[in-house]
Amino acid sequence: MPSTFLNFIGGEWVACRTSASFANVNPANVDEVVGLFQASAADDIGAAFAAAAAAQPAWAALPAPRRGEYLFKAAEILESRLASLGEEMTREEGKTLPEATAEVKRAINILRYFGGEGARQFNHQIPSERENVFCFTIRKPLGVVGLITPWNFPSAIPAWKMAPALVAGNTVVLKPASLAPLSALRIVQALEQAGVPAGVVNVVTGGGGAVGDAMLAHPALRALSFTGSTEVGNLLHEKATRRKLRVQLEMGGKNPTIVLADADLDSAAAILVNGAFFSTGQKCTACSRAIIERPIYQALVDRLIAKTRALKVGNGLEPGIEMGPAVDEAQLRTDLSYIDIAQKEGATLLCGGHRLTGGSYDKGYFIEPTIFGGVTAEMRIAQEEVFGPVLALLVADDFDDAIRLANGVKFGLSASIVSNNLSRVHQFVNRIEAGLITVNLPTAGVEYQLPFGGTKASSVGMREQGQLALDFYTESRTVYLKHTI
Ligand code: NAP
Fold first, then answer.
1. What does pTM read for this prediction?
2. Which of 131, 221, 237, 361 has the highest Cβ tally under 10 A?
3. Predicted confidence (pLDDT) per residue in 69-119, tens digit
4. Which mutation among 284, 327, 387 tests ligand 1's pocket best, with the greatest number of atoms within 8 A of CB?
5. Which of 99, 103, 117, 284 is flagged as catalytic?
């Protein structure tokens, strides 16, 4: 019998009001139910917001360094369970065990980083024009914040939203993705065991539509931080702005890697394989377009295909596996449908392109890492997010053409260049329309202590992670204090 997991509301693990539940299935082995989770509705969200609102004044009154101590303790608790949490994540999301374990470690680092922010939270002291007047700013928490997270980083994203929100003095209501809720519950459990007061952290699982609508409509909601698809993000943006809520949206991408003619071809191929296929291409920062200068196109393609064909696809719990399954049947179908669309639009299938079948592949949603050549800028495979292991290759006539192609999409999350030409690299940094820019590195693989976020249709609102993350979760107040009358 699979375990049943409850909501966490007001310091108690509770069933949802209707007692309905949904199953979370292992995408590498659909016979395995990872757990049953609460299919919550508006009443449960109401209870979570009531608890969060009641707890917020006392939590905000606690000195920030003491709030930070809870995060340090939770990090220690998670670290003591690192191995089992990594394994659970592989079972619920499908990414390989090393990838999953590294993600839990990242969540731990995030809790420690923001625990430390409790003792920093720097403000400004600004000189006054007037005598005996002392001017400074202070940060105040917003109140109750709502957090909605996706399945692809089921531990890191809940951590990078909860940690800054909490250390700043907010209380939170979290709705994790239905395809991978367990990793988020484990962080909440660690916060509970660290002694975080009742009501400060609340988590409600359930379908995005029902739970999300109730969250957006709740009068106690002061701000919403969302990571997920552009489609859902746009919907939430409309609702949130109607209520004049502070809102932060991190959404899709169509991230390019430009490879210039001077690049080392083996390094470029390794960077592309890493960016496009690790985590099954299911990273918002994954590379889905390689833009290659014409003189090296064929030589790079040959290396790329050889490396891609050598990738080991399978159950991420098995040693040596480099790419796990698609997260569910719907995502697998999306991947396959884009493969079909690309061929119909005239792109050339260079490798992969099929669902993997036979033996243990029949138990899961496995797909070959796939590369298309002959892709032109207007094709859907060059414009739309697939969110799977599908890489489109475009030829650039020169550097300016490469920049034009790279910027010619609605998204602007991450972008990379492979080159040793210092001048070109600087021009790329200045001209590329992306929030995350890497040089001689994959488009994916960001670190927790630096700001994270995109531009154009990829993001709305302030940055996540690093010190800038606190800006979203706090309001600045300005004080003019005349100390001698
Ligand atoms: P999604 O379908 O948009 O879901 C994200 C979250 O929103 C889930 O918790 C989902 O709940 C919830 N949701 C769905 N419909 C909702 C509604 N009407 N109201 C409120 N909440 C709703 O995205 P996903 O498939 O989980 O994640 C993949 C997407 O996330 C990709 O587009 C990827 O690029 C993006 N992503 C972006 C970043 C970034 O930082 N830019 C990072 C990671 C992922 P259910 O799970 O219950 O449906």
1. 0.98
2. 221
3. 999 999 999 999 999 999 999 999 999 999 999 999 999 999 999 999 999
4. 284
5. 284
